[in-house]
């Protein structure tokens, strides 16, 4: 009797928890879809608008689907209309940005890796202070250093040049990259370095042969971070460069805000997408490596 | 010639004194174990021998040559670490020959050494694997192999077994012992595990608070601990230390614990210094395994004690008795039946007793 009673009430409970689970699951999906659409909505508007003609934009609403796939505005955004003065288009500035972002990401990542390596594996007196000052560099508002930096670039003779921007971005990237690498290397057993020292490897050999080969995950994180920061930077770009040396974000701003003619929303949207594509590519390509977690179980059992 | 000699060595990190006036010597082929609780400075001492830490005072000699300022790679030593410290990006073979490559050894010699050592340690089938693909025991073996290929003067082991599970640890312990028997190399081995120390070492240096408490053979460490720290640290459960006084009359010396007038005759005890023994406050040290249920020799001293607590651990049992309000632990085979809260007749083996001064904590 007792057993029967219990088993029936268990069944009831099972049924109940099944319904609860189902409800929660659907609720979860609902919330996720809601948030996802909230995020995807602006992108949808941008893509759709960039494919419309000005005629369509004036007549339709934000959400209407374009009548045909029309990439004209993309071509205009990238290569211009072909007439001389006053025609701003993205191509040259895109290459400016590439020329700025590649060396800046490389140097800041490399120097950050070195600094992180020294701060964790070659401790010296006062190293915490060095690290503290570097951290300070993460928190300092960049507006505060615009003037002194302009002076410095002027003195060095590299103001209004891509080289100057590379320097600025490298210098202000180092605090972040150092932080990343320091926090990564601190979890790498110092015994590895000791073993290598006994084996006769020196400072650089240990870094290049032993630490760098296991740093893939943090390198990817740092590259993503630095690339996004530098590519999307507007403040330094607009302050320290103008005209032909400007990076793409500054050019985008100039294009969209030029008040000489009619606002071409389709070209503006296409330009904005073009300016955003490289960061997307970096995320898609490198994100995969990031997730893999290349050192899993390599150091300790 | 001493293979390794450490002279008046002191080390501090900032204001913390880690090692104080350490003196140590090892002869060729000996296995020295540095044993002590965590934070006693044993790993620091090993790192100093390896050259990975600087010295504040004193000197380290290898083969009578002062190496205090010599780089680790030039000291002719090899080290095995607790976390194995295998280079994660290199395979087993690359790991093992990394040191030889750095030393610009010829390719033939490297290949020859690699083959010899990997066969010897039975890792020759694993040479292509990455450390992450190895089991704990295999990693340990590769780490030892990496040390072996360099044919160093001194092997340094830094708690090499503490990352392994209990069963594997016993196996690897035997392998290290075998290795030492076959190769007859000089070893300095750091551990906090007394069983490891006892079974491996030809000499054990027990450390506490940066000072060597006793540096002796395993037998002497166990039988004649030089102070209460060593007595307490070695043995499981550790030595009973009963507080009391010495009484000396005529030619007889006896011990009586505080709060009792049972005199334990200890005339056969070999004092290191026989002056002023009467009335001296001492700890009477006797190991749990030297309290017997049956009398075994003529030096046994009979007592009647009440059992308070019984811990059964399979092959043996640990019984806690009350000896004039002080806890006294004894170890018996589990076949013996002892009833709690009842007087039991026991025998102290007086040949195995140690006495310590209560003030200086030193053996007397």
Output the keywords.
heterodimer; A: 301 residues; mainly alpha; MetI-like fold; 2 domains; B: 364 residues; alpha+beta; Rossmann fold; OB fold (Dihydrolipoamide Acetyltransferase, E2P); five-stranded antiparallel β-sheet; 8 helices; 35% strand
Explain how this protein is built.
The complex is a heterodimer of chains A (301) and B (364). Chain A is mainly α. Chain A folds into 2 domains: 2-79, no CATH class; 91-292, MetI-like (MetI-like fold). Chain A is 73% helix and 0% strand. Chain A is built from 13 helices and no strands. Chain A has helices at residues 2-50, 54-59, 72-79, 91-121, 127-139, 146-156, 162-185, 190-198, 203-211, 216-232, 235-240, 248-257, 265-292. The N and C termini of chain A lie far apart (54 Å). The relative contact order of chain A is 0.13. Residues 293-301 of chain A have low confidence and may be disordered. The longest helix of chain B has 18 residues, at 166-183. The radius of gyration of chain B is 25 Å and the shape is elongated. Chain B folds into 2 domains: 4-232, 3-Layer(aba) Sandwich (Rossmann fold), CATH 3.40.50.300; 240-357, Nucleic acid-binding proteins (OB fold (Dihydrolipoamide Acetyltransferase, E2P), Beta Barrel). Helix content of chain B is 23%, strand content 35%. The relative contact order of chain B is 0.11. The mean pLDDT of chain B is 91. Chain B is of the alpha+beta class. In chain B, a hairpin with a 2-residue loop joins strand 9 (203-208) and strand 10 (211-216).
List the SSEs and their pairings:
The complex is a heterodimer of chains A (301) and B (364).
Chain A: H1 2-50, H2 54-59, H3 72-79, H4 91-121, H5 127-139, H6 146-156, H7 162-185, H8 190-198, H9 203-211, H10 216-232, H11 235-240, H12 248-257, H13 265-292
Chain B: E1 4-13, E2 16-26, E3 31-35, H1 42-50, E4 57-62, E5 65-66, E6 77-80, H2 92-102, H3 107-120, H4 136-148, E7 154-158, H5 166-183, E8 186-191, H6 194-200, E9 203-208, E10 211-216, H7 218-223, H8 228-233, E11 240-249, E12 252-257, E13 264-265, E14 281-286, E15 291-292, E16 300-312, E17 316-323, E18 326-333, E19 343-349, E20 354-357
Parallel strand pairs in B: 3-8, 3-9, 6-7, 7-8
Antiparallel strand pairs in B: 1-2, 1-4, 4-5, 9-10, 11-12, 11-14, 12-13, 14-20, 15-19, 16-17, 16-19, 17-18
Helix pairs in contact in B: 2-3, 2-4
């Amino acid at each position: 009797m007792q057993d029967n009673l219990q088993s029936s009430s268990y069944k009831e409970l099972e049924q109940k928890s099944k319904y609860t689970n189902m409800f929660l699951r659907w609720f979860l999906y609902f919330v996720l879809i809601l948030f996802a659409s909230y995020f995807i909505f602006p992108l949808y508007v941008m893509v759709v608008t960039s494919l419309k003609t000005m005629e369509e934009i004036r007549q339709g609403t934000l959400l209407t689907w374009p009548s045909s796939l029309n990439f004209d505005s993309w071509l205009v955004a990238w290569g211009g209309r072909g007439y001389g003065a006053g025609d701003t288009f993205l191509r040259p500035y895109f290459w400016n940005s590439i020329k700025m972002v590649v060396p800046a990401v490389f140097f800041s990542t490399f120097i950050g890796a070195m600094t992180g390596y020294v701060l964790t594996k070659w401790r010296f007196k006062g190293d915490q202070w060095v690290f503290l000052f570097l951290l300070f560099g993460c928190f300092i508002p960049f507006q505060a250093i615009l003037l002194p930096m302009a002076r410095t670039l002027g003195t060095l003779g590299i103001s209004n040049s891509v080289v100057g921007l590379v320097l600025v971005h490298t210098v202000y990237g180092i605090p972040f990259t150092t932080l990343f690498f320091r926090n990564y290397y601190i979890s790498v057993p110092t015994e590895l370095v000791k073993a290598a020292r006994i084996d006769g490897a020196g400072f650089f050999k240990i870094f290049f042969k032993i630490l760098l080969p296991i740093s893939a995950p943090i390198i990817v994180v740092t590259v993503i971070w630095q690339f996004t920061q530098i590519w999307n930077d507007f403040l330094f770009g607009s302050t320290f460069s103008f005209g032909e040396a400007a990076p793409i974000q500054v050019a985008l701003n100039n294009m969209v805000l030029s008040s000489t003619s009619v606002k071409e929303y389709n070209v503006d949207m296409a330009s904005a997408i073009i300016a955003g594509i490289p960061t997307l590519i970096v995320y898609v390509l490198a994100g995969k490596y990031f997730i893999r977690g290349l050192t899993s179980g390599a150091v300790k059992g | 010639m001493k293979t390794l000699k450490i002279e008046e060595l002191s080390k501090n990190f900032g204001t913390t004194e880690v090692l104080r006036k350490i003196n140590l010597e090892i002869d060729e082929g000996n296995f020295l174990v540095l044993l002590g609780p965590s934070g006693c400075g044993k790993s620091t001492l090993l790192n100093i021998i390896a050259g990975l830490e600087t010295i504040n005072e004193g000197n380290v000699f290898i083969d009578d040559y002062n190496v205090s300022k010599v780089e680790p790679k030039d000291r002719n030593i090899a080290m095995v670490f607790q976390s194995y410290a295998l280079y994660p990006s290199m395979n087993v073979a690359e790991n093992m020959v990394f040191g030889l490559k750095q030393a610009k050894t010829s390719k033939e010699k490297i290949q020859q050494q690699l083959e010899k050592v990997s066969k010897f340690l039975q890792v020759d089938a694993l040479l292509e694997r990455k450390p992450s693909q190895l089991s704990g025991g295999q990693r340990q073996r590769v780490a030892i192999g990496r040390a072996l290929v360099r044919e160093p003067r001194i092997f340094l082991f830094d708690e090499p077994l503490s990352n392994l599970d209990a069963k594997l640890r016993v196996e690897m312990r035997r392998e290290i012992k075998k290795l030492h028997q076959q190769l007859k190399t000089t070893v300095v081995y750091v551990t906090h595990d007394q069983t490891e120390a006892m079974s491996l070492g030809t000499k054990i240096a027990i450390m506490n608070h940066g000072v060597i408490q006793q540096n002796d053979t395993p037998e002497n460490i166990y039988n004649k601990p030089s102070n209460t720290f060593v007595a307490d640290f070695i043995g499981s459960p550790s030595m009973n230390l009963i507080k009391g006084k010495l009484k000396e009359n005529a030619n007889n010396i006896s011990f009586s614990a505080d709060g009792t007038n049972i005199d334990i005759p200890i005339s056969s005890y070999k004092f290191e210094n026989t002056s002023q023994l009467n009335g001296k406050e001492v700890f009477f040290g006797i190991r749990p395994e030297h309290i017997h249920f049956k009398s075994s020799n003529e030096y046994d001293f009979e007592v009647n004690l009440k059992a308070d607590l019984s811990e059964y651990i399979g092959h043996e049992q640990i019984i806690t008795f009350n000896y004039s309000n002080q806890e006294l632990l004894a170890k018996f085979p589990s076949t013996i039946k002892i009833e709690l809260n009842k007087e039991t007749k026991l025998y102290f083996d007086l040949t195995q007793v140690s006495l310590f001064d209560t003030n200086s904590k030193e053996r007397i």
